[in-house]
Amino acid sequence: MAEPTAPVRPKRFEDKPLPAIPDVSSMAEGVASVTLSNHRTHLSTFRTGLSEHRTDLSEFRTDLSSERTEMSMRRTGMSFQRTRMSAERTLMSFIRTSLSLIGFGFTIFQFFEKLKQAGTVTHDAAPRNFGITLVLLGILMLIVGIGYHVQFMLGLRHEREAMHADGLIYAQSKFPPSITLITAVILLIVGVFAIMSMVFHIGPFG
Q: Among 17, 56, 66, 162, which is least packed, fewest CB within 10 Å?
């Protein structure tokens, strides 16, 4: 698409003095009538020049307004991208918190499980339940984060398409696949396998 040309401001109007009113008091009636008619013609020409200058200024203002509207449409389109990236950062916060809970809970569980197998401790129900609770909490938080992210992104895409259909934004840039969402789903699968290993002693972590 060709770049739009910048509007050119019309030249400043030459401030010419109004034609002087002719003195027809000493003229014959016919000559005076022609002289006054010529004077009216000069005044009409002067008004026409002013009118044309006003039209040029009006067109210049219209071009400026169109340019500002286009810039506003582009800024609005970019704001959708910024909002999308903000949603990605929010999901990353959910991932960090969930990963900490899952990793910490699984570590506690495995630590006391090894101590029990070595005969160092005999009662490990409390730390075992605590570790399972942390992992479950991490999985639950991850599910909530994924659900919120998907719902928000679907609403954002729908709003963007509606504004594009109304001609309010260009919407030329695409929303790329969410690597953060893919990572969150993989972490959720890992968390499910971890809790299965902890409770039923099955799976890759059992």
A: 17
